[in-house]
Automatic annotation (TrEMBL):
GO terms for cellular component: plasma membrane. Belongs to the binding-protein-dependent transport system permease family. Residues 468-755 form the ABC transmembrane type-1 domain. Keywords: Membrane, Transmembrane, Transmembrane helix, Transport. This is ABC transporter permease subunit. It comes from Wenzhouxiangella limi.
Amino acid sequence: MTNSVNRTSEALSDSSYLPSREAMARRRQRRYLADGAARWMVRAGGGGVVIALALIFVYLFSEVVPLLRGATVEPAYSYELPAGASEETPLLGLERYGEIVMRYSASGRLFYFERDTGALLEEIDLNIPPGVSVTSFGNGEPRSRRTVFGLSDGTAIVVDHEFELQFPEEGVRVVAPAPVFPVGDAPVVVDEDGVALTAITVQAAREDIGVAAQSADGRMLFVRYQVKTNFMTGDQQIERRAYELPTLLEPVEHLQLSANLWNLIGADQQGNLIYWDISRPGDALLRDRQIASEAGEQITAMQFLNGTFSFVVGTSSGRLAQWFLVRDETEDAGDNIFFLEQAREFSRHDGAITAIQPEYSRKGFVAVDDSGGLGIHYGTSARTLYLKQVSDRPLTAVAVSPVNNHVVAQDDQGRIHGFSVWNEHPEYSLKALWGKVWYEGRSDPEYVWQASSGSDAFEPKYSMVPLTIGTLKAAFFAMLFAMPLAIAGAIYTAYFMSPRLRGFVKPTIEVMEALPTVILGFLAGLWLAPFIENHIPVVFTVLVGLPVAFLLVAYLFSRLPRHVRNRVPPGWEAVFLLPVIVGVTWLMVSLSPLIEIWFFDGSMRQWFTDIGITYDQRNALVVGIAMGFAVIPTIFSIAEDAVFTVPKHLTQGSLALGATAWQTVTMVVLLTASPGIFSAVMIGFGRAVGETMIVLMATGNSPVLNFNIFEGMRTLSANIAVELPETAVGSTHFRILFLAGLVLFAITFVVNTIAEIVRQRLRARYSNL
């Protein structure tokens, strides 16, 4: 018997299912390798995400870095003037290609010489009658290339410094001077009394040429010349219309005329600025007079910037200030009444300002002073991009190339100094992007985004504030709509709903996340926005009607007999609310016209207008609803998982201690799931901040600065999507759009970082439950 038992034990030992030691060692080794590979793959994936984000940040920042540079000025050449060095130079100029320097002398001679070598190319004497001398000089804005010489007999010669291209052989381009005399090379009459013109200016407005001047006896004159050409014979006929303006007691030293020939600005010896309204020359008015100088100062230079909406004044103490006309909006001012207002000042030069030359296509200008200083400034951004002494002698004239890459200056000894310039992005400054800026034509400093216009004289407005506020506004209203529905739905689905119904509802809501946002934006813009506009009361009545209907149905359900209520399976109560939702919504839509008639005189939109509330068809309300539907699946899915994974022993223990289901949810479940719910909200907020297509199609894309739910907005992401394909690569606009992307990236990063910190603290606080 004993032997039989031993043989059985040996057989069992031989037929044991336990693996050998070698097999177990091999299994452990494979498990360790798999765990190590998985661990490194997770690390590599996480590291890859971090590297990708870092590379995105580096790329965005690399596109933004050039905005931070100021102007770079490098000396290029220096030589003596080729001719007429002893004559005063009221104007220097460069043609488009920067190959030829043009110099006007105070005696009425035009000199053209090579920019780099100073070799004289051509010298032209104006057709000045014998015994008549030049007594004044004026010029229009740089784009017009128009100048005027006032003469001692009350006449003037108008000259356009044009150039023509010649191609003597293939591949060879020659730029040749070709001055144009738009009203003839002979002097034209300005003052019929023949009195010398002591101050003069010129401007072109379509077919008219305007000349404003002050005569030696103090009279202010304005003359419009209209050149008419006979298309059959080619003969030109000049029509002259002369007007006398309100006269000043003191002489004017500087005059500037706006491009539309409506405004005349003068500066006298006492440092005053004078503004004449000549929009109706026959009834011209002296509108305003302002002191533009400090004690002991004189105005030494004055020039309109590009577009002739604003002008820069330079003084004998080196001060530079930008002025423009501001509309008087007082009730008794009437329409189109303007007054002079100083908008900003620039860095002060060490010497008296001797010349100001505006840029051809931007709101910048170059100024020189009698200490040899050269300054490059920009109006809108209020930046002084470069200010250094470049000569040991006083500089008396300056020119900037039409493409803003070259500057030529002349000193008082007749020497030319040339400089190569890098000044690509003067429009940028922190104040221009994030502070209030006083733009031309505006009554006050404002936050404005308007990157382009059909006018060549347009002033770009790059304030990021309306876009950032618009982004937060869209996200706020979307979260206001999505958070209550998503979180409440997640709590009910995870805790109260029956498993069978949950298995249908949860996947359905998660599938909503796969719906393209372009479809939601399309529906919001073409259907939802007009529907809400036509049924505005529905928005408010549904918000009140549905909760009241739910409470009423709940009360009626509680009054039913117990055996009837018991027939409804636990967790299926929500199904019976679906007909209530549909019925109440249909009822409110049907009552909407009647509500408007009863309470809002037939139109709630007009009622909003009457009480001062702007209503746009595509507004933040539409965006909130449409983008809310896009955000709900994200918040719902994460929050539902957080609530559903709350340990059962916590809820069961709470119920066992006598707490109701609602008390258990509010006091146990929500606290335990709060880290996950908060993460869901923050991820949903980040999703809303970065949304593009819905806000692009359903907001109207108006960069307004308010939180009015009935007005639209423009977001950072939508602005990038709209404007980036149309902007020039490498331009300031292009780089500021990349800066907008960097701001969007930073907002998302900050939100996610705060969310993670709060989530970790909530997790640590409630982990002991």
